[in-house]
Amino acid sequence: MDISVVIPLYNEEESLPELTDWIRKVMLDHNFSYEIILVDDGSNDKSWQVIMDLKKEHPQISGIKFRRNYGKSAALNVGFAAVQGDVVITMDADLQDSPDEIPELYDRVKNQGADLVSGWKQKRYDPLTKTLPTKLFNSVTRSMSGINNLHDFNCGLKAYKKDVVKSIEVYGEMHRYIPVIAKWAGFSNIQEQVVQHRARKYGTTKFGAGRFIKGFLDLMSIFFVGKFGKRPMHFFGPVGVISFLVGFFCTVYLIAEKLISIANGTSYRNITDQPLFFLSLLTIMIGTQLFLTGFIAELVSRNSTDRNNYHIERVI
Ligand code: UDP
Ligand code: MG
Asked: Under a CB-based contact definition with an 8 Å cutoff, are residues 200 and 93 in contact?
């Protein structure tokens, strides 16, 4: 099979018929063999009924329904587990992404060696309150991940080599960072394609302003887990030691200063009157705690089931 299209959806009953018809038209025009996997993320409108009706005339459609709303990442993860096509396309259900982009995305993955192609909504039809924070979000993600060629990490329209989706795991709200997760898993050919974007035709957006705060927290987690997940002590250890040593040497200095003053008979302040003393106390305590946190994190990661999970590309 050439293409699997994965579509996570939550209360998108009005869009689905138009979307699947459009996809079918594109697929027929280009003679692709394909499947459309609609993942109903616990909708409480008639989305599931619509999916069942669509499937009757369109056998390439398959549907997966969650009992409740788990979020877009969960929906993608389940969709990824089910795909069979060589190239996997994800798109939003709200008709903001255009299926006309599929042939070019397919070509770049299939014939031009891309592991992942991310859409870039260069011209967006979203309110300013959304586009402005998004710019900031993207530039932070770019600099932290080292993926400098992407302008739009969170674009719903993406294409993947099948290998990629089978070896990554998307959970929580990590769908915003799939390119970063893919890079950590060792897929380095990450490209971008300018795509059409349209205003939402039916329904409303499912993410509020909280997305930006959660987004940044998730970014920190991704980096920590990606870089130090298998060796947490390498993160906590050095920071803890530095903090401890700073406090330790300050204390030594304070004591030495006082002893010297006593020996010389000059006036001196009580150690407890000096701000430096309290700072030293604090850094020693923080240092010890970081160190202990490192130990505990090592114990936790040693017990995790995927401590020896690596992405093996080939064996001969
Ligand atoms: N979505 C989902 N589960 C959720 C929230 C959203 O499956 O809990 C789907 C939604 O139906 C749409 C896609 O994720 O197909 C993107 O959502 P939306 O268009 O609301 O996001 P925006 O375009 O505002 O970023
Ligand atoms: Mg949308």
From this structure: no
Three-class SS state of 153:
coil
Residue 313 lies in a domain: no
Is residue 122 a part of any domain in this protein? yes
Same domain, 176 and 246: no
Reported as a single tens digit per residue, the pLDDT across 53-65 is 999 999 999 999 9
Write the CATH number for 183.
Answer: 3.90.550.10
Nearest CA to ligand 1 atom 24: 205
Mutual angle of helices 16-29 and 47-57, in 10-degree steps: 30
Q: Which residues pair with 161 in a beta bridge?
A: 87
Residues 210 and 249 reside in one and the same domain? no
* 12 close to ligand 1 (CB < 6 Angstrom): yes
Give the domain range for residue 122: 3-228
Residue where one domain finishes, among candidates 228, 248, 272: 228
Q: Is 96 in the pocket of ligand 1 (CB under 6 A)?
A: yes
pLDDT tens digit string along 259-311? 999 999 999 889 889 999 999 999 999 999 999 999 999 999 988 887 788 87
pTM of this structure? 0.85
Cβ of 93 below 6 Å from ligand 1: yes
